[in-house]
Specification:
Length: 243
């Protein structure tokens, strides 16, 4: 349904250089934040024998990746969805012989490509960080943890998409990421019974008990369902300026 040409055209319209810079910058900032935190908490991590534990370091990386992914997703959805509203170009797009559903599938594919790109770079930089810290790497465990992050973190970009679908002002939708970031920062003050049902907390919830296989499976399953529901809503519902 979605051709390479359509994806290429969509990326070129947004600006491939712009997207690549945003992706690399996001991963670099994630690395800087997590490395700074590890250095700042070094004594505490050493006293708790966590400096040489691979999952502990990966969980710190994942924590900061959540914040950066929120911002990165908000920006990418701005270019993919909200910029069309701002420029009033949805109606112009209809003059191209491409069905609406195919057009929207293309936009979602572009976002997924960017999400995969971020995760690949994030995995590489996390691996480099473990090397730098001299931690003995269990590659099977590393890939498992990164795969879990990839699945559960899908809830982040698709939570951001809701802002861009409901609010036609792209810049306002981006600014609302502050709410998401604030909620993560105050998570410890929110009753756990509530955080269980808020998708943006799923990554953190999984990492709190990563050895609980049943919990991991549940959150991965729910994350995929959440992604599919938001995806179908964005395809089926008239959230756009044309029909």
């Amino acid at each position: 349904m979605v051709s390479y040409v359509h994806i290429k055209n969509e990326i070129q319209k947004i600006g491939s250089v712009k997207l690549v810079i945003a992706m690399f910058t996001s991963v670099f900032v994630t690395f800087i934040f997590s490395s700074s935190f590890i250095e700042f908490k070094k004594e505490s991590l050493l006293s708790n024998n966590m400096m040489e534990i691979q999952p502990a370091i990966q969980s710190i990386n994942a924590y900061f990746a959540c914040f950066i992914l929120i911002v990165f997703s908000a920006i990418t959805w701005y270019y993919i969805i909200s910029l069309e509203n701002k420029n009033g170009t949805w109606s112009i797009l209809l003059t191209i012989p491409i069905p609406k559903r195919q057009l929207l599938f293309t936009k979602h594919t572009v976002n997924f490509v960017l999400y995969v790109g971020y995760n690949i770079l994030f995995s590489i930089i996390s691996l480099i960080q473990l090397f730098i810290m001299g931690i003995e790497i269990n590659y099977g465990e590393f890939l498992k943890l990164q795969a879990i992050f990839f699945i559960v973190a899908l809830t982040i970009p698709y939570s951001q998409l809701l802002f861009h679908l409901i609010i036609k002002n792209g810049l306002l939708a981006i600014s609302l990421t502050i709410i998401t970031i604030f909620l993560i920062l105050i998570k410890d003050n929110i009753p756990s019974i509530i955080t269980l049902f808020i998708p943006i907390f799923y990554v953190d919830n999984v990492w709190m008990d990563i050895t609980n296989l049943k919990l991991v499976i549940i959150y991965c399953t729910v994350s995929i369902l959440y992604f599919l529901v938001i995806f179908l809503i964005s395809i089926k519902t008239n959230y756009y300026n044309y029909e």
